[in-house]
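Please annotate this fold before class:
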Amino acid sequence: MTQTKRLYAEAVGKIINRHDRKHVGYLYEWNNGELQQAWFGHPRTDVVVEMFDEAISKAN
């Protein structure tokens, strides 16, 4: 774990339920490089993460 203080985070991906493809949360990256999941309700176990930068590069 890094000793840099967490000051800000930005969403870097969307958490999607693998079975019904519902959007169930976001993945955030803190200024110190740590990742954190933020759920809409209770955490899920069978999910995939769609990173935003991958979606942008696929569109171009």
